[in-house]
Design brief:
Shape: elongated
Largest sheet: 5 strands, parallel
Strand order of the largest sheet: 6-5-4-7-8
Number of strands: 8
Strand content: 5-15%
Structural class: mainly alpha
CATH class of the largest domain: Mainly Alpha
Helix content: 55-70%
């Protein structure tokens, strides 16, 4: 017992025990060359990327009426005009983003547009705004869905935080299975919801216009006690602006398509632009239809229904459950308990849950781009087993779950934090596009192309002006109601990403491979084996120099092909420098690093069982705890596996970064204070010992 066969068996059993649950939950790993199979057709891309703006029609009309109710029922006649303003804004934003997806199809979206045309700080501001907005999208959508479902299932209302977190976990697992699979799962309820809303609008219009029926919502006979009676002048304008800013919740998620262009099938830009137009048309029609039916059926909503909603001269009280506008309209049009009413109610609750999927596709993709630009930990750049950006998905889920717990899954409180970030990104993106067209017009001579550019610039300029105006309105009307929290979150993201970029830049500068030989390339002594290399930098050169000193039968450098572009760059640089060590590259179709190295080392052992294999790993030495999160994770996993491989020795070749000096000083102070007998003898004896040591070492 305990010999090599037993160790191999135990290792195999442990691996299977940990691997099987993972495969059950998220499926089998996919090879890198199957990435093309995960690309989305337009019919699947629409529910994947547009579920947020499409589902927002379930609560955006209600938010408009809630704000107007402050001035009483008489203010409801402004709702159609607010709807018109939202429609104009929606068409403006959609038209502007159609220019974006054609000009910047790489998937950077607003971040790439702002960075390229306005500079890195503007790009980072956009990225911070979008990251905050994506987290809020998940929290608001899930909380709103829980509240809709809670009207039918009391358990959900009683435990809404637990239920909201459970839904977040479920959505996370679905997205970890991959974009295409999650898109297929989400397509059916999204299309059922869209179809249900259109049927409701059409049937309601037919009953009202053709049949002349007087449809009445369940709250049609209620009265609203206004908080401020007879508003006029500036107070009325402020109220209308606040209602408009609440209605702008219908625009959240529009930018997700421009960020997700790489996920579309070819021709990517054309398909993304078509999907964007379809989404805008559907969202606008549904939003206007629900507002019109709410007005026709006399829906009543109040910010504080227990006290402000009056029925037969008496307040409805704390036990009253205020149903969403779409639910009240459906009851008036279809009849309470009818088949279509039940189907639409179920589809509405489900699509609100699935609206979070827009963020589940936008956040990880943006996180990957930011990680590639060294603004976020590089672990967010890599794809997981199912070719999804798994680390970004998990990070989003954790942040959204934390927000849900803090705000008690209350959509009314959460929605006040909403849409600030998205209008920051809208405004900066459209301003960047104006700069983009100005730059191209300065060099373009073809008149047809110039006319197209001028037209596109006009669209983007109007978009920048309009969204900038809305941003000012949103900040003005929502700042004290919770928008300051979103701004604080943006500042935290901005500061964190700036610090991470500075760290990575400092490390890159320290480890940059020199053009002329220096101490890192000097041949010290003897030894050799397999030197692991990811790219050519100072740590790798030091490890190669060290390996040449080790007297062994063979010496080779080993790299794993995770990214073909980086691997090609490594080969070219290797040949350019003329490094006299053979470079072997291992293919890794599943983007793993550890397993291919382990299998290769085992094959060397199998070919020559009496030989020893020495694996040399270059590593960074850092001085702060948070820097460990940004480096050496792959090396730690690899060393952990190699230590249990018989006949294999692991050597770490450290490269001390400047921050390691702080750790060295801390260790020296700790060692001095904890010198043998220091505690027992006391500080006086310790200082006396230091003085004697100094005297004995003094050459004079």
């Amino acid at each position: 017992m305990g010999g090599p066969p037993f160790e191999r068996l135990r290792s195999s059993v442990v691996s299977k025990l940990t691997d099987v649950p993972k495969r059950i939950l998220i499926g089998r790993a996919l090879r890198s060359d199957r990435l093309g199979e995960t690309l989305l057709p337009k019919r699947v891309a629409l529910p994947v990327f547009a579920s947020d703006p499409l589902s927002s029609v379930a609560y955006a009309p209600g938010e408009v009426l809630l704000v107007l109710s402050i001035a009483g029922v008489s203010a409801y006649h402004f709702s159609p005009w607010i709807a018109v303003a939202v429609v104009v804004l929606m068409f403006t934003v959609v038209a502007s983003y159609r220019q974006n997806v054609h000009a910047y199809p790489s998937g950077g979206g607003d971040y790439e547009v702002a960075t390229t045309n306005l500079g890195s700080k503007a790009g980072l501001t956009v990225a911070s705004a979008l990251l905050v907005d994506y987290v809020l999208t998940v929290a608001v959508s899930i909380s709103s869905g829980i509240e809709n479902l809670g009207s039918a299932i009391p358990f959900v209302v009683e435990h809404k935080v637990f239920c909201a977190v459970a839904v977040i976990v479920l959505l996370t697992l679905m997205n970890l299975r991959g974009v295409k699979e999650s898109g297929k799962l989400f397509a059916i309820p999204t299309y059922v919801f869209v179809a249900g809303v259109f049927i409701m609008i059409a049937w309601g219009a037919f009953r009202g216009v053709v049949l002349g029926d007087h449809m009445r919502a369940p709250t049609a006979d209620y009265e609203i006690k206004p908080e401020h009676q007879g508003l006029a002048g500036f107070a009325l304008v402020f109220l209308l602006l606040r209602a408009f800013s609440s209605g702008c919740a219908a625009l959240t998620g529009v930018e997700a398509i421009s960020n997700g262009v790489p996920a579309f099938r070819k021709p990517k830009s054309k398909n993304a632009a078509t999907t964007l137009a379809m989404m805008g048309l559907l969202a606008v029609t549904m939003f206007c239809g629900i507002i019109a039916l709410a007005s026709a059926t006399h829906v009543r909503m109040a910010e504080n229904p227990a006290a402000d909603l009056i029925h037969n001269g008496v307040a409805v009280g704390a036990d009253y459950v205020q149903n969403p506008v779409i639910s009240q309209v459906a009851e008036a049009v279809f009849g309470k308990g009818s088949f279509l009413f039940v189907v639409l109610a179920a589809a509405t609750a489900l699509v609100l849950f699935l609206a979070a999927n827009t963020a589940y596709n936008g956040f990880p993709l943006l996180g990957s781009i930011l990680a590639q630009d060294r603004y976020l930990p590089r672990q967010l750049h890599t794809r997981g087993d199912r070719l999804a950006f798994s680390n970004g998905i998990v990070l989003l889920a954790g942040a959204a779950a934390l927000l849900v717990c803090i705000y008690g899954a209350d959509s009314t409180r959460l929605i006040q934090l909403y849409i600030v970030g998205v209008f920051v990104s809208f405004t900066l993106s459209q301003t960047g596009m104006v700069r983009h067209w100005n730059r191209h017009l300065a060099t373009e001579k073809d008149q047809a192309k110039r006319r197209h550019m001028v037209r596109s610039r006009a669209i983007n300029a109007f978009g920048a002006f309009f969204t900038g105006l809305v941003l000012v309105v949103v900040l003005f009307t929502k700042f004290t109601h919770g928008a300051w929290v979103a701004l604080l979150g943006m500042c935290i993201f901005f500061a964190t990403m700036t610090a991470i970029r500075k760290h990575y830049d400092r490390v890159a500068e320290e480890i940059a491979a020199p053009d002329t030989p220096d101490d890192d390339m000097v041949r010290p002594s003897r030894v050799h084996s397999v030197v692991l290399v990811s790219k050519i930098h100072r740590p790798a050169l030091r490890a190669l120099s060290y390996a040449k000193l080790l007297r062994s039968g063979s010496l080779e450098a080993l790299s794993v092909n995770v990214d073909p572009t980086e691997t090609k760059a490594l080969r070219d640089e290797w040949e350019r420098r003329g490094i006299d060590v053979p470079l072997k590259v291992l293919d890794s179709p599943y983007r793993e690093v550890t397993r291919p190295v382990i299998e290769y080392v085992k094959s060397l052992r199998k070919e020559s069982p009496r030989d020893a294999v020495s694996v040399i790993i270059p590593e960074y030495v850092v001085g702060h705890w948070y820097e460990h999160l940004l480096h050496n994770q792959s090396a730690l996993r690899l060393k952990g596996r190699l230590l249990f491989t018989p006949g294999v020795m692991v050597t770490s070749v450290p490269y001390q970064l400047q921050s390691s000096e702080a750790a060295k000083r801390r260790a020296r102070r700790q060692q001095e204070w904890n010198a043998p007998g220091a505690v027992r003898r006391g500080p006086a004896h310790h200082l006396h010992h230091q003085d004697r040591t100094k005297e004995s070492s003094d050459p004079t």
